[in-house]
């Protein structure tokens, strides 16, 4: 970190001491853009880093709702409208008991640069609630979503702020949220939310987009570094939306997925049957613990998949943040992992990333590798504005094109700044951040 970045970071550490995930995300970005800060000493006088790290607006609100027994509950709702420099705020909603303001800020901060890398006209935001959807009935989920949207509706709009899903928010929740928005506004502004059902303005391939996009990016990395995907052994953590479709596209390209996980433990299976995983997660909303009995093969273990002694070539963490620390990263490297690509947001901590780079592991950060989801959300917005639908193949082709373009932007940054060609983290941060800074300066007052 250069002196200017260090001063701004120290100031944030003082002001936001209770937001460790946010500080971690800022530290990663600041450390890797040193080269552009050194080339532009004038940025300090323009307070560029202060302007980048201060959210434009934070909304926090009360979400009261009634359970099926008539008991009232109150959860906390958030929307962080971080940066509208490149377009309407865009980023998902997360429903998870660990949601806090610091988590929302880290996710929204990451989202700004990820969205910049897609080259689509979208700013950065994120929101959610500490509501736990696990074990709730459909009617409880509906009442919660309606209450959440009753407040959120006044802050969003197709040209203002366009939320989508994230952990705990899938097609069911987006349907209830959109239904309440329509009822409150009395208009069919389908472009206000993305990840909608196909019957009311959703896009084909949105569900698959983050996972498929991750694999398109990994395939580009492999091509660039002379690795044949056929027969590569992969660990994919998580078994939610991102993990399932990453596994599907990986298998379609000859990559062998040997393990997946969820919040309760992990599954090891050399003959992984993804249709059983989908049935458990998408229909039964259960745990992978049920898999061995249903599939007739595979072994279930409690704990983290990253504490297991598994020989693999690739790791694609697609579960949640900070799944991999230095100890777990060292274990992956010892067991043969040579490529790590993040499907989740910030699943590796900064010590783990440093270890990958020291050991010559190819590493793709989430803001480049998982940008396919938000990119396809922006394609959904385009279809809503044009009032037409593209076919699955049309959307998938555009998604692949965007992921290849993000890889190309990383390569260009590596060439321009003479970076380590395995260091996609610096390349992605430099390419994304520079776009936002250029637009801020061009518009004068941001
Ligand atoms: P889901 O809620 O669909 O899936 C999350 C998965 O992670 C589940 O399998 C869950 O287990 C598992 N998980 C949750 N907590 C833990 C934990 N502490 N340890 C191990 N596993 C855990 O979310 P998504 O797939 O949508 O999102 C996953 C990640 O990808 C998040 O970081 C999200 O921000 C990021 N992302 C998502 C995008 C999208 O389009 N959905 C776009 C870009 C990034 P269980 O099934 O038991 O709950």
Structure classification = alpha/beta
> Quick one: overall form?
globular
Helix content: 40-55%
Radius of gyration, in angstroms, nearest whole number? 21 Å
Task: List the ions, cofactors and other small molecules found in this model.
Answer: NADPH dihydro-nicotinamide-adenine-dinucleotide phosphate
The whole-number mean of residue pLDDT values reads: 96
Strand % is 15-25%
Topology order in helix (H) and strand (E) letters: HHHHHEEEHEHEHHEHEEHHEEHEHEHHHH
Distance between the termini: 24 Å
User: Quick one: biggest sheet?
Assistant: 7 strands, mixed
Kindly state the number of beta strands.
12
User: Low-confidence parts lasting 5 or more residues at pLDDT below 50?
Assistant: none
Strand order of the largest sheet: 9-8-7-6-10-11-12
Number of helices: 18
Task: Summarize this structure briefly.
By secondary structure, the protein is α/β, with parallel strands linked by helices.
Task: Describe the fold and architecture.
The structure is a single chain. Helix 10 links the parallel strand 6 and strand 7. The protein has helices at residues 3-15, 20-32, 34-39, 42-45, 48-53, 101-117, 138-152, 171-185, 206-224, 241-252, 274-284, 291-295, 326-334, 350-358, 366-369, 372-386, 392-416, 424-442; strands spanning 57-66, 72-83, 89-95, 124-129, 161-164, 233-237, 256-262, 265-268, 299-302, 314-317, 339-341, 362-364. The protein has 446 residues and is α/β, with parallel strands linked by helices. The longest helix is centred in the C-terminal third of the chain and has 25 residues, at 392-416. NADPH dihydro-nicotinamide-adenine-dinucleotide phosphate binds at residues 165-168, 210, 238-243, 261-264, 287, 318-320, 343-345, 370, 373.
């Amino acid at each position: 970190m250069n002196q200017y970045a260090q001063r701004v970071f120290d100031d944030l550490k003082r002001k936001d001491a209770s937001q460790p995930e946010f500080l971690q995300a800022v530290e990663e970005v600041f450390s890797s853009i040193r080269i552009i800060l050194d080339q532009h000493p004038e940025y300090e006088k323009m307070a560029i880093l202060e302007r980048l790290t201060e959210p434009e607006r934070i909304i926090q609100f009360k979400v009261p709702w009634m359970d099926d027994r008539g008991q009232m509950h109150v959860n906390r709702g958030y929307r962080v409208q971080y940066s509208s420099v490149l377009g309407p705020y865009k980023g998902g909603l997360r429903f998870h008991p660990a949601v806090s303001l610091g988590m929302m800020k880290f996710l929204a901060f990451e989202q700004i640069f990820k969205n910049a890398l897609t080259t689509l006209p979208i700013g950065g935001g994120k929101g959610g609630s500490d509501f736990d959807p696990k074990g709730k009935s459909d009617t409880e989920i509906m009442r919660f979503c309606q209450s959440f949207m009753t407040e959120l509706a006044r802050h969003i709009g197709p040209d203002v702020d366009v939320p989508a899903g994230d952990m705990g928010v899938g097609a069911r929740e987006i349907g209830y949220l959109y239904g309440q928005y329509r009822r409150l506004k009395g208009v069919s502004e389908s472009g206000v939310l993305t990840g909608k059902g196909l019957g009311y303005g959703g896009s084909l391939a949105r569900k698959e987009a983050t996972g498929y996009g991750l694999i398109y990016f990994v395939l580009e990395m492999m091509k660039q570094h002379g690795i044949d995907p056929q027969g590569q052994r992969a660990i994919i953590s998580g078994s939610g939306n991102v993990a399932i479709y990453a596994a599907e596209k990986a298998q379609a390209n000859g990559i062998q997925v040997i393990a997946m996980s969820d919040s309760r433990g992990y599954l090891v299976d050399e003959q992984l049957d993804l249709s059983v995983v989908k049935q458990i997660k998408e229909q039964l909303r259960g745990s992978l613990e049920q898999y061995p009995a249903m599939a007739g093969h595979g072994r279930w273990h409690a704990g983290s998949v990253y504490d297991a002694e598994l020989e693999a070539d690739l790791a694609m963490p697609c579960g949640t943040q900070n799944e991999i620390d230095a100890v777990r990263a060292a274990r992956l490297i010892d067991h043969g992992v040579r490529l790590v690509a993040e499907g989740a947001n910030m699943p590796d901590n900064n010590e783990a990333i440093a270890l990958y780079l020291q050991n010559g592991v190819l590493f793709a950060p989430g803001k480049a590798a998982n940008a396919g989801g938000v990119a396809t959300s922006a394609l959904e917005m385009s279809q809503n504005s044009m009032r037409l639908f593209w076919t699955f193949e049309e959307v998938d082709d555009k998604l692949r094109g965007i992921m290849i373009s993000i890889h190309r932007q990383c390569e260009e940054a590596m060439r321009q700044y003479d970076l380590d060609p395995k260091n996609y983290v610096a390349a992605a941060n430099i390419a994304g951040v520079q776009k936002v800074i250029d637009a801020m300066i061009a518009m004068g007052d941001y």
